[in-house]
Amino acid sequence: MQDKSLTKKPGKKNDKKNGNPKEKAGPAEQPERQKETLPESIHSIASVLVSGLFIITFVFQAFEIPSGSMENTLLIGDHVFVDRLGPTAKASYTGPLVPYRDIHRGEVIVFLTPNPSEPGLFLVKRIMGTPGDRLHLEKGVLFINGVAQKEPYLNPVHEDKLYEDNFPREPAYALTRQWEDDMPTHIQAGELVIPQGYYFGMGDNRSGSRDSRFWGLIPRENIIGRPLFVYWSFQTPADQVNKTTFQDRIFFLFHIITHFVGETRWNRMFHAVH
Predict the structure, then answer these.
(1) Domain ranges in the chain?
(2) What pLDDT score was predicted for residue 9?
(3) Three-state SS for 75?
């Protein structure tokens, strides 16, 4: 009985009656790929550049750590990628496209300094006070809302300093004029009360950090983003940040080229920042 479910494949013919069995057809020829024109090449390159510029400007940005105020979490010469998108100010027009979330206590952030004498300077600190928090330091121990904090990230090398270790109860010194006038308005019962829209940041190298204790609170709009990871780290002298002449920069660039392998901290590559 013939199986009616089987159908004859189109295009096949049996030429045995003519004594000429059909020869197997060779592979189908591929159509020749058209070459990209000059305008198309320029458009492709421009698209890549624009996408890269958008990512660098609005999503990720590279920063170099110039000082030891965050040791040992971040070292001088660490190069980090910073997430600019998550901590950006919340706006109604962004909707669900921007994964906004607020800044949490204990996070490391990059921000523009509120110190008016250093406009445009980027700093990196750890947020230790959020809006509504009450904080003070007592013999180097940080208290937030009356609770002593456990801070495993602190640099174990500590130098006792009266003001820094007993903030804000000890007489202040070396403060910016603006913070000297503003700080007393936020002190209640010997504690600093963080107002809405502001944050209090300190370095992990607590005795070697010029931070909110000296120049004041960090406005929300000054926050740039959160460091994600170290993508490269190079052994850099502590005074390199002060060498700003063209000759100094060329000399250090030559030093990097000639000592890239030996003085790169390979163990810090892709080290996550916590």
Answers:
(1) 55-131+196-272
(2) 46
(3) coil
